[in-house]
Amino acid sequence: MPRTSPARPRIQLTRSQQIAALVAVVLIAYLASQWWHGRQPSGPARPAMTTGTVVKLGPAKDGVAELTVRYRVGSDIREVTKPVDLAAFDAQGKVAWVCYRPGDAGNAAIRLPEDELCGQR
Asked: Transmembrane stretches, by residue range (predicted)?
């Protein structure tokens, strides 16, 4: 049976036009990917970490003690007091780190050396 619909015209592109079209498609996909990832929240909740100086170790209750650590953010000196496992604190050399958000350095957490990295919980 003969074909009743007219033949569709084919788009004829030269080799350089095909390469340019491929580059344009890849570039559009890359830019869309960057835009999409830029809209997603990035980084951990407390991405900054600094060393701290233990100022005070409160009395232990059920193996947990209140630890006060002094730390420096820029030119500010701050303190944070949080409960820590006393046995872990002693076993890890009585060293403490402080995790904080750069925009809110007053909201900090104490990290012992063998704890998970800041914001990875």
From this structure: 20-37
Q: Does residue 118 contact residue 43 with C-beta atoms inside 8 Å?
A: no
Residues of the chain above pLDDT 90, percent: 38
Contact 88, 112 (CB under 8 A): yes
Mean pLDDT, range 24-43, rounded to an integer: 85
Kindly report the three-state secondary structure assignment for every residue of the chain. CCCCCCCCCCCCCCHHHHHHHHHHHHHHHHHHHHHHHHHCCCCCCCCEEEECEEEEECCCECCEEEEEEEEEECCEEEEEEEEEEHHHHHHCCCCCEEEEECCEEEEEEEECCCCCCCCCC
- For residue 73, the enclosing domain spans 48-111
Q: Residues 40-88: pLDDT tens digits?
A: 765 555 578 898 899 999 888 899 999 999 999 888 899 999 999 989 9
72 and 86 in one domain? Answer: yes
57 burial level (CB within 10 Å; 0-12, 13-18, 19+)? middle
